[in-house]
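ugh finaly. both done.
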Amino acid sequence: MMSDGQLVRQTLAGRTEAYAELVHRWAGRITALCHAKLGRADMADDLAQETLLRGFRALRSLHDPEKVGPWLCGIALRTCLDWLKAKERSQINFSALAAGCHPEDLAWREGPRLDHDDELRQLMAEVEALPEEWRKVIMLYYYEDLTYRDLAQLLGVSTATINARLTKARTLLRERLTRRFCGEPGA
């Protein structure tokens, strides 16, 4: 039986089925760790899969191939923390954007409530309507899981520029969604 380190080295050499063996060895422990961290069995499998995918993508950054297990566990903890932070942010429905609106402006509240899929579709429509430089940075940051440094390298700008673009994009999205749900002109 090959060691974890040997499997890592084979994976890095292009034999991706070696990573499948690592997944087989570590998936149960990672799932248990995610379950323990979140207290939710329904999310543990999803976050374990996300962890293993992140691990595969970042495998070249592993300094000691023999320590792949503890390294994956560290990724699992960060993945769970990312999910918990995102969950806190995502628990706010679009109606919460209207916190500054007057009740008479919220005629849409009288109608049917938007479900998560409708909210997501409307958010994506607003993201797609952003100017390209802001849309690109939002999509890469949130959907490709790139860091500010990675984005700066990829786009050929400074990390400060990335920060400014993300801030501007978020502000524009917040303004557009607030207009849409507060019934202001231009919505």
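ok and the 2nd:
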Amino acid sequence: MDFTFHALAGAAISKELTGKYLIEASIFSILPDVGAIPYKYFKAMSCSKKSLGRFLKDFTMPNKNGNFFGNLDKLVYRSTHSLFSLIPIGLLAFIVSRSYWWILVLSYISHFIIDAFTHEKEFSQMPLYPLLNWSIKGKGWSVNKKVFILSWAGLIFALLLQQGIS
């Protein structure tokens, strides 16, 4: 899913477990997508330069073949979306907040769970990368309207339910 979805999921997790929204939880929930920066760079370089409108359309639409542009963007993306990234993230979470570090780690893990159901093809979740190339085959949120709508509906329902409970 997109940054906003992951950030709201992190906020919901922190609210549920602490009774308050932690901005740190939202940040940790989007950290795996830092690995998408090289991909976004290469995508920007491949977009049409004819007009701003055409560039934005190319940039926001899914990659036509659903693949990475090269080995660098594939390596960085898969590394930040691997469970092995939990070790440095866990240490960072402990440095950021000794009282809520585990909530930050749970927010980070929520990203993997969400992506497992909402990513496909090359972007499928590979939780044990680089040891195993096994992946969880989800359905791409950016190309499947049902996945997009159901994911957002579920998150909005959870947030509304959470507000009603508090």
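summary for the 2nd one i guess: The two ends are 27 Å apart (CA to CA).
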